[in-house]
Amino acid sequence: MVTAAEHPNPSPGTPRLWCQLLTSLIWLYRGPIVPHGEGYRPDPLGSTAWLVLKGNAQVTIEGCRVSAGPGQWLFPKPIARTQNFSPNTEILSLRYHAEWPDGQQLFDQGLSVTFKETKYPELRRCAEKLQRMVCRVSHRSFNDISFACTPLSLPHYFQIEQALMNWMQTMYHCLTSEGLTPHLRHFEDQRMTLALDLLNGWPLNQRYTNTLLARQVGLSRSQLERLFAHHLGATTKHYLDRRRLRQAQLALYSQNKQVKELAYELGFRHVSSFSAWLKDKTGRAPRDFKDGLLL
């Protein structure tokens, strides 16, 4: 295990800063490329890491093509991309959140990047330990995004989170050693911290009003919105919409809910209103998420 002291740390943050970094495991898969795993991905959810075990993986992003062969890691830039694989390719694939409240990923500048697994062997060991943990505590392996919506006991959740943090710690070391610089977002204002905590806990099926949020934070509505504009470049409603969109994508990709049920849980009275909102945000209708695959 790489210790924290060995990590390049170009700009240390406070505990208050780091606790605002949103981290979670979306899915983890090991095996051959599944059907519909190739092609254009218009709205990648979170960040991705592939370890190519067999064959060849290739991503094309903004006209730039990056390939990885057996024994190589590939970290694609977390934006729209086209991905292709040679026949019989097998990979170890992780999809995860490591982003700030404004949606900025911890790493994106300098990506896409590839490197040999032998350069950082701990990265594979941590990934495989995480995979074993996921399979053991959930009694199944996953080949779609359904892991994010799988019921887990709190002790099992803590076990997976610990294994995920070990992998992320090592991933941080590898990417910074490759010359990538992490993004840091400074939300040290206690009013901003409180507002973010409240918005992250806001029930998505309840009507939102910035009047109530402002009162809870101890600001006027205009002061609250100026605070968000300064720190995030967005309104409080836009922030809540980003959270709502992420929940919609997770549920639609995993296909664990009927669209009508999902629309209601996200605060829409009618499926047509939800579909129009989703189309406006992503350019896609609910049925377009049917493949449920996020390699």
Descriptive report:
The chain has helices spanning 15-18, 121-138, 154-177, 190-200, 210-217, 221-232, 236-254, 259-265, 271-282; strands at residues 22-32, 39-41, 47-54, 57-61, 64-68, 72-75, 81-85, 90-99, 113-116. The longest helix has 24 residues, at 154-177. Helix 2 runs antiparallel to helix 3 (154-177). A hairpin with a 2-residue loop joins strand 4 (57-61) and strand 5 (64-68). It is built from nine helices and nine strands. The strands form two sheets. The chain has a five-stranded antiparallel sheet with strand order 1-8-3-6-9, covered by helices on one side. A four-stranded antiparallel sheet has the order 2-7-4-5, with no helix packed on it. Residues 1-10 have low confidence and may be disordered. It is an alpha+beta fold and 295 residues long.
Question: Key features?
Answer:
Arc Repressor Mutant, subunit A; 19% strand; four-stranded antiparallel β-sheet; globular; 2 domains; disordered N terminus; Jelly Rolls; 9 strands; 295 residues; five-stranded antiparallel β-sheet; alpha+beta
The CATH topology of the largest domain is what? Jelly Rolls
Overall pLDDT level: 86
Question: Which architecture name of the largest domain does CATH use?
Answer: Sandwich
Biggest β-sheet: count, sense, barrel? 5 strands, antiparallel
Separation, N- and C-terminal Cα atoms? 27 Å
Shape type: globular
Helical content class: 25-40%
Radius of gyration: 20 Å
How would you name the oligomeric state of the polypeptide chains in this document? single chain
- Strand content is 15-25%
Q: Please trace the helix and strand order, writing H or E for each element.
A: HEEEEEEEEEHHHHHHHH
Structural class of the secondary elements?
A: alpha+beta
Write the CATH homologous superfamily of the largest domain: Jelly Rolls
- How many discrete domains? 2
